[in-house]
Amino acid sequence: QQPVQSPQAVILREGEDAVINCSSSKALYSVHWYRQKHGEAPVFLMILLKGGEQKGHEKISASFNEKKQQSSLYLTASQLSYSGTYFCGTEESDSWGKLQFGAGTQVVVTP
Amino acid sequence: KAGVTQTPRYLIKTRGQQVTLSCSPISGHRSVSWYQQTPGQGLQFLFEYFSETQRNKGNFPGRFSGRQFSNSRSEMNVSTLELGDSALYLCASSRRGSYNEQFFGPGTRLTVL
Fold this sequence. Notes:
The structure holds 2 protein chains of 2 kinds. By secondary structure, chain A is mostly beta strands. Chain A is built from no helices and 11 strands. In chain A, a hairpin with a 4-residue loop joins strand 7 and strand 8. The relative contact order of chain A is 0.36. The model of chain A has no long low-confidence stretch (mean pLDDT 93). Chain B is an all-beta fold. In chain B, the strands form 2 sheets. In chain B, strands 2, 4, 5, 6, 9, 10 and 11 form a 7-stranded mixed beta sheet that branches. In chain B, strands 1-3-8-7 form a 4-stranded antiparallel beta sheet, with no helix packed on it. In chain B, a hairpin with a 2-residue loop joins strand 5 and strand 6 (53-57). Chain B is globular and about 40 Å long. Classes of the chains: A mainly beta, B mainly beta. Chain A binds chain B through residues 30, 32, 34, 40-44, 47, 49, 53, 55, 87, 89, 91, 95-104, and chain B through 31, 33, 35, 42-45, 48, 50, 55-56, 58, 90, 96, 98-107.
């Protein structure tokens, strides 16, 4: 089942913060976060596993609430390069290896 | 380290034809997943192959099929093309370990006329 992402879009000024949320009704093994710029392939940002382990880029911050099956991606002190569409992907505990994506959150950072 | 490569990058076909897309994973990655991306439906999971076996499948009709070779390269085939199959087809490779992060190729843009 595809996760639900919110908000659909957000506009920020450089230096502002934003939070993108992702939720699932299924028990999850992991939550992934990717960013896709126009005309490019999605790029891996972070993965969070049930149990608390996580791996990703240093400047990326995210959390995973296992009880609620919710994850949040935190864009802090945003830069122009943060613009793009952010996707969360979820692996359900009973279908490991099958990554299902949310609809995406379009982020625009303006000077 | 070379990234994921996909060929061809662009394809134009007509309804009823079939098409084969190719994906070469990052060296050492044995899992290849395929996704369809359209403006209306977003990123949809098609299937995943690992060690030449399909391990997971999305909700697509049987016209969509794939296979993986012993060198981990993968192909995806779509038969009897429909207008609605026009999309960006992305493949992604991973090590399929505890951390199953996906590394995406540039995609194949398929247009069905």
